[in-house]
Amino acid sequence: MALIFVTGNHHKFKEASEIAIQHGIEIEHRNIPYVEIQADKLEDVIRLGIQQACALLNGPCFAEDSGLFIQAFKGFPGPYSNFVFRTLGNDGILKLMVDETNRRAEFKSAVGYCEPGLKPKVFTGGVEGNITLEARGTLGFGFDPIFVPTGEDGRTFAEMPAGEKNKLSHRARAIEAFFRWFKQRKTVDR
Ligand code: IMP
Q: pTM of the full predicted structure?
């Protein structure tokens, strides 16, 4: 039976699918609108979100919440990234940072898994990088054109094919941690 990924974002589903295939896990996309609370930590947002989704679905499922944490802004937009992306967008972030020399930022991801009657489990992942001076690239989504991961060749996530981003990204790291736990747990439960 396929594991349900609750998300309205087809980019996220595509990224997760590539990782799932490598783990021999079949995942299915379901868009169940759950209420996202406002909280400073992604872990708290996803814990309540996945509990709701699981109750609505009445079955096992996982979801993911992510954000861009800019050091010069003390972590802003962080858990408010979705709102900031929809309002300011990449151009707005670049304008806010125009005189800023500290370009360091981190993408963070929290994956929540829940099944009826169980407490939700949360897995996290992160990737450090820098905010560019201008947007570059057309691949990926969201803040990808303005984020260059540290330790790579200077390309933004939006200049990397999906498979390459998926080896480095915050989401890939959190989902990997979840899938590793999920596979092991199934073996233990048998
Ligand atoms: P959410 O997890 O859907 O709430 O995402 C928060 C915001 O961060 C959205 O505006 C996304 O577009 C953006 N975001 C999340 N993950 C990524 C990513 O992998 N690359 C670029 N932007 C992302």
A: 0.95
Domain CATH code at residue 136 = 3.90.950.10
Question: Which ligand 1 atom lies nearest to the CA of residue 141?
Answer: 21
For the annotated catalytic residues, the residue numbers are 65
Element spanning 62, H or E: strand 61-70
Spatial contact of 103 and 130, defined as CB atoms under 8 Å apart = yes
Residue 190 is predicted with a pLDDT of 44
Task: Give me the number of domains the chain comprises.
Answer: 1
Expressed as residue numbers, the domain containing 175 is 3-189
Question: Which atom of ligand 1 is closest in space to residue 9's alpha carbon?
Answer: 3
User: Element (H or E) spanning 111, and its range?
Assistant: strand 104-114
Q: What separation in Å is there between the alpha carbon of 127 and the centre of ligand 1?
A: 13
- Least-confidence region, from 1-5, 44-48, 171-175, 184-188: 184-188
**Residues 133-161 pLDDT 10s:** 999 999 999 999 999 999 999 999 999 99
